[in-house]
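Translate structure to sequence.
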């Protein structure tokens, strides 16, 4: 039976300590030079990940980050929990009336943000040597698939950057968030359709219509009914909690369960 023991707790604390200490060191240097700390977070991830530490010092990497199922799951769970916190706090702060006023601009930006990167990415990927496409029977579909992956935005990173430059709650910040949200919705729909094409070797129009329809219905419900329900629940729970922490966590976990 797989379970958590003292060794798992030790390695988790070791991982968090190294990540926090190194991140704090790098970010303190960036702050002195008026640079966003999100850059430091990404840099630390690259340094401690398989790209650098895992490639050049594999023994140290495997000691700090044991590749067993339980240990990986523990760190991943904390990472997802932090991501939920970022997205929840952003949703609470966002003024959807301001976003709705800029819906046309947001739609134009998001569409261009999808088309232009896909075109430039495919122009490069398609002409790569054939050895990069040995696993695929269709070079065009593979190039398109990789281009779509590169197009999907990293919304949590963008949110961090907007907060650090102080424009998170401005009209420009709301415009950027709304454009990136639309980008993610369209990008993930296309990604899912291409993934089904890869797995089944043919394009299923029924699945395509269902995915698009379900995503559209979910988005409309989330932006209308969902927001009102979460706001009501948030106000009720937080008012009964003296410091608000338990209320925030209750809303976070409940929302995560529904969305998952």
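Result:
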């Amino acid at each position: 039976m797989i379970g958590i023991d003292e060794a798992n707790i030790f390695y988790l604390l070791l991982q968090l300590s190294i990540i926090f200490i190194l991140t704090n060191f790098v970010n303190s240097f960036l702050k002195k030079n008026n640079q966003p700390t999100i850059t430091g977070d990404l840099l630390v991830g690259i340094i401690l990940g398989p790209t650098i530490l895992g490639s050049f010092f594999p023994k140290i990497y495997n000691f700090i980050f044991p590749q067993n199922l339980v240990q990986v799951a523990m760190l991943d769970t904390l990472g997802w929990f932090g991501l939920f916190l970022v997205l929840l706090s952003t949703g609470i702060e966002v003024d959807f009336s301001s976003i709705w006023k800029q819906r046309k601009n947001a739609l134009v930006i998001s569409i261009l943000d999808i088309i232009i990167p896909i075109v430039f990415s495919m122009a490069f990927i398609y002409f790569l040597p054939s050895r990069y496409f040995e696993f695929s029977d269709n070079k065009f579909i593979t190039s398109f698939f990789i281009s779509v992956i590169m197009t999907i935005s990293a919304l949590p990173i963008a949110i961090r950057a907007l907060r650090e430059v102080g424009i998170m709650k401005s009209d420009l910040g709301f415009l950027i968030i709304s454009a990136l949200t639309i980008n993610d919705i369209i990008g993930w729909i296309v990604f899912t359709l291409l993934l089904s094409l890869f797995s089944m070797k043919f394009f299923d129009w029924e699945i395509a219509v269902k995915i698009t329809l379900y995503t559209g219905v979910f988005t409309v419900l989330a932006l209308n009914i969902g927001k009102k329900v979460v706001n009501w629940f948030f106000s009720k729970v937080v008012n009964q909690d003296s410091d608000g922490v338990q209320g925030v966590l209750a809303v976070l976990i409940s929302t995560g369960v529904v969305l998952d």
